[in-house]
Amino acid sequence: MPKIPAWTGKTVPALTKESFYDELERLESSVIVVEALAVKPPSRSAALSDAIQMTDRARDLVHSLMTVARARQSLNATDTLAITWRADVRRWSDRLETAATKLLDAILQLPEETRMKAPFCDWLSPLTAIKRNKSDVSAAVILPLTAMHAHLVSTMKLRVPLRDGRLLNLSYAQATAVLKTSDDPYLRRSVFSMFNAWFGEHAPAFADLLNAMLGWKLLKADRTNGDFYREALASERLSSPSFLAMISAVNARVSEIQKTVTYRARLLGEARLHVTQILSSAPRADTSVPNDFKTIDAVIEALSHTMMRADPAFAAFMDEAKTHHWIDAKQQSGRAGGTWCENLPAFKAVAIFANFVPSTAGAFQFVHPCGVGFLHRALHGESALRKRLPFSVIEIFGMLAETMLERASLRRMRGTSEEPAIVWQMLRRASNHLLMIPARHELLSNLYRARRDGVLSVSDINALSRTAWDKHFGETTDGFDQYVWAWKPHFYHPTNAFYDWQYSFGYLVSPMLAKSFEEFGRTAAGGDLRAFAIDAAHMDCETLLMKHLNRDIRSPDFWHDAITEALKAIPTK
Asked: Is the residue at 5 inside a domain?
């Protein structure tokens, strides 16, 4: 059996208790020095520059230790030590940022010519603005609530009946992996039924958590006199016209996009596609899973080869990730669900987490964080604030890796027995990002509006869930994902007001970028993927995509072209 990669204490530094506290002590020392400098900031620009660079190194360490805490809890969702670690790091991070605001005041006293030079300019850029009004409530209340969601779902222990009468024991992570990647329709339906029964039983607890998260985010916006939706977009470096143009284009073509669901139902001989099949791999795994997607090593090789067209350095990055064990893809009880990639800038490393299942869907779930990892690695030479990229930008890189592998696989598999698997995968991705994600965004938007009028009951939330689903899927499905608001961790994100539409954004931008790389080997600006990544750290989304695609994303025409490009290779008749 192929070996599944896993992290070690050496390759993901500070993952062990002893090494974490060694690094935390290093952070404490750095913060104390920065605080001392901030009491009376240096007047000379050279000395002030040194203080700023020391602050940025401390920020990199903060981010790295937060990633380590997330990694530890992802390996064991019940690990309370990881929660303690986050609190410890957050305490020193808050002190660091308080000191940083005093240094910022000193920067503002410098001559303009000096302020416009590195490292001062990064602190003054609108894209990296330091938030002066921080709330202790977020660290004291919201982060523990997010951790509570992870803890609650980790208590799931399902006993799922199989065809032969045996019972299959599944954790939350294992159950979600089955629902996302298994090609066995009977197993998926059995797990879905038990999964929903469990969340139905525990729905009041999740409703309480959700009400707390929604209420806090609304209250925070009101107290800062902020426009809730405008601020949510500003933090993503995206203008309202661009966002509205994307949403309107998707809504205008819902009936066309729904064919990605109805076509698959016909392939299965069904009038409607069962809800459990929307995100499934192609059925009949023994005949349809391509060899490229059966092992981690095979997926890495296929991805590295495909991404050569965008940037030869991508293969070197994947070799580095394998060699240094930056990837953990084991499936085991107690792990968190899903996939993610986070930066470890203080250690010049990244952490990639997955629950790999040898299937077409499992392969593409793994590919996504690899694309994000390339972005993080490309920016290790940038300042700490430039590394803080919005989710909208991050998703472009994850989606691009999926899109380019998808398109290359379809070209290679045309006319072979493997072709149905990749066609199904393309239909699956389109359904997810142009129907499922917009439905989730609609639900969350409506939850915010309803929450302003008071606490929401389970029945209130379920009714809104039904309404959002029907708007996007119509009558194309058998059943709906009633408890998505309870099981999906995105609804409990501690900072982002919305953690959904960014997937659709990245999905639609990615085929336009892929087309450029496939046809010309470069973007419209003549750059490779690394050059695109560097610009992403310095530009808003409109400027970035105007430079590298020569298109105005504020125009609905761009988004209609993107939808057409995403769907053009997919049969729906």
From this structure: no
